[in-house]
Design a protein that fits this description.
The chain is an alpha+beta fold. The chain is built from 19 helices and eleven strands. The strands form three sheets. It has a five-stranded mixed beta sheet with strand order 1-5-3-4-2, with helices on both faces. Strand 7 and strand 8 form a beta hairpin. The longest helix is centred in the last third of the chain and has 32 residues.
């Protein structure tokens, strides 16, 4: 039985114990609740305003009032939404505070939120009923981008199946949908989501980079083939027949003219192999028979750089493979890290240990900050803070305005972002090989503030090391005849 009066007072509720009545939420007494934060999100208040309170709250009858025993969040949202009547189940009052607290804990602990897989299915059903993403968002009080993401997941059989089986988050499922049709990528993403969720973003970015690289290789192969340049496999290191054009020249008397792809275009030995090292995808143009086609060594008798003689050892090959793999991994991690830094920059307050970090960086030296200030005018920091990178001459500086109007706590955080961006701007593929004290402090701090380091970034938290011959800079590597592009 349900009492339908718009409002019920405590006195009127004396005969309605065990019944559901309509009460004015503003007349209810809210006691201390185990929830410290009612979490009245705009979406929840909007849902209450549109649909009302669908599950009655539990109220306790006393001599002079009705006390909310369970349903504090729904009551507060109803008041904010302007409702004048909500359903309430009335029970007799007692003074057992322990029981009240235990009941509140049980209600909150055992109320399961709608799983993302169920949300995906529900949005898909609404879409099949003819509702657009915008209409679904409006009627369910959900952000439109979340609805769009859910519908994207629903449209991928693989993503929907993986989500249903492993209960992935909506964002994780959307990434899986990106790789629909790539079984190995889907497997890697699923394993990461289930076993190492903190590494999921890194795995996803590496897969994106690999996909983009494969597409770049395919596009470059097509371009070379269309231009009439045969595409060959990369020659073995000790191949003495095939030579790169950068090593060759034509001879006119004593004058050597370096060969280029354009001047070599009519040579019967023209060819190219595709390198996809850390420098990106590029064509390495070669001649398959330089001697037979009248080419000479470009650097003969010119004091050219001495190249390593003989084939690379297995140890050198392993070092080169590790070098190239880690350099590529660093590039992927940089994308994930800077996305995280942008989210971190939006915080209103700095971490508790930010002051100590800032003081430590200032004591160690301000070169990175000075460089960022004078050479790029804090370009990366501006990007992370959501500001324009460049400011016209004489125009107001949004960064200065941001600092001027910030609260003290926000101002400290902006200062932290400026220092972090300055250090970040100086990182690169060299960082994991040659870890400085600043690098170590920087990556250690990021990890402490919640950023999940990738494997290669974790190397930057190690003590400083000095490069061996195989880990030297690019010029040293090139002098040995196996630069990063080979």
């Amino acid at each position: 039985m349900t009492v339908t009066e718009s409002q019920t007072t405590a006195a009127e509720a004396t005969t309605t114990t065990g019944q559901i009545v309509q009460v004015d939420p503003r007349t209810l007494v809210l006691e201390v609740n185990v929830r410290a934060d009612a979490a009245l999100t705009p979406e929840f208040v909007g849902s209450i305003k549109t649909h009302g309170v669908l599950t009655p709250i539990l109220v306790q009858r006393t001599a002079d009032a009705l006390h909310v025993r369970a349903g504090q969040r729904r009551t507060l949202a109803s008041i904010e939404a302007g409702l004048t009547a909500i359903p309430a189940y009335v029970v007799d009052g007692d003074t057992d505070e322990a029981r009240r607290i235990i009941e509140q804990m049980a209600e909150n602990d055992h109320r399961a939120a709608l799983a993302d897989r169920d949300r995906v299915a529900a949005f898909q059903q609404l879409s099949l009923l003819g509702l657009s993403a915008a209409q679904i968002a409006k009627r369910t009080h959900t952000k439109k981008d979340q609805v769009t993401t859910a519908l994207t997941v629903a449209g991928s059989e693989v993503a929907a199946a993986v989500t249903a089986k492993y209960d992935l988050t909506l964002d994780q499922a959307a990434v899986v949908a990106e790789f629909d049709g790539n079984a190995e990528a889907v497997k890697a993403l699923t394993v990461a989501a289930v076993d190492e969720p903190e590494q999921f973003a890194h795995v996803a970015q590496r897969l994106r980079d690999d996909r983009d690289e494969a597409q770049a290789v395919a596009d470059l192969t097509a371009t070379l083939t269309e231009a009439g340049t045969p595409v060959i496999d990369r020659p073995a290191y000790d191949d003495k027949t095939i030579k790169r054009l950068v090593e060759l020249a034509t001879l006119d008397g004593d004058e050597r003219t370096p060969l280029t792809p354009e001047t070599h275009a009519e040579c019967p030995g023209r060819a190219a192999w595709i390198d996809n090292g850390w420098k990106g995808v590029q064509a390495i143009h070669v001649c398959t028979d330089p001697k037979g086609n009248g080419h000479v060594d470009r650097y003969a008798y010119t004091g050219g750089t001495e190249r390593q003689s003989g084939p690379m050892s297995e140890e050198q090959k392993a070092e080169r493979r590790a070098l190239i793999a880690n350099n590529k991994a660093w590039k992927s991690a940089e994308t994930v890290r800077r996305e995280w830094l942008a989210g971190f920059a939006a915080r209103k307050t700095a971490p508790k240990d930010a002051a100590g970090f800032l003081a430590g960086r200032l004591v160690a030296g301000t070169y990175a900050l000075d460089k960022a200030s004078t050479q790029t005018r804090h370009r990366l920091a501006r990007t992370l803070l959501g500001l324009p990178e460049h400011v016209g001459y004489g125009a107001p500086d949004p960064l200065a305005d941001l600092v001027a109007t910030a609260t003290p706590a926000r101002a400290q955080h902006i200062a932290l972002v400026l220092v972090l961006a300055a250090i970040e701007d100086g990182t690169g593929t060299h960082t994991w090989r040659n870890v400085s004290e600043q690098d170590r402090a920087y990556f250690t701090a990021l990890a402490g503030w919640g950023y999940a380091l990738s494997e290669v970034e974790a190397l930057a938290t190690a003590a400083p090391t000095y490069p061996s011959d195989a880990e030297g800079d690019d010029d040293q590597d090139a002098a040995k005849g196996y630069d990063n592009g080979e």
